[in-house]
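Morning F.,

Quick status update on the modeling queue. The single chain you submitted on Monday has been processed. Sequence for confirmation:
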Amino acid sequence: MLITLWLRLGAFLGKTLLWLLGIGLLGWALSTAWFAWQHKGPVPDKEQVAPGEAAMTQDIIQTAIRIVDQHRESTRYLRDAHAKAHGCVMAEVQVPSDLPAPLRQGVFAEPGKVWQATIRLSNGNAYPQFDSLRDARGMAIKLMNAPGKQLLADRQSQGEQDFVMFNHPNFFVSDVAEYRQNVAAQADGKKAMAFLPSLDPRSWQIRH
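Structure tokens below.
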């Protein structure tokens, strides 16, 4: 009798696992198809500024300040992301000599030019943690003596240009609106809501 019970339980668990696997594959296929449909068509070659982007940017800044306050340790403040640096190094960044003409813009205008730079390497997490833990890895490059108007009004004499990157070919959100929604959910401690913001499946960011 005990053997029969075990066999039936094994059969039930096996069927359950097969059903779960089938549902998972179906969900993956549907989300892939939805993502492909949402992003079909040509990609614009110029930046698209969304309506209300300036206001959304201000919301993101206030959320970042709230996250920094949450991470504060007495009088010690941590960044809202990439809090732990592996190190900072002095470097030289050279523009490729065979750079195609359409890409020769700004600091890339002169093929072969060498820029002096500082590079910061970091973990992605907002809390310092062991490097052995899985995490995004960041690399921020600051070019020195770069021409052009500075973004910040009080740093016009600096002549710097920053490039912020991490070790994945795609960013984890598609636009400013998604970024605002994502960081707001994380600031509220609702990490699941960062990628599943509502009951409407069209708003889910499964692939993200």
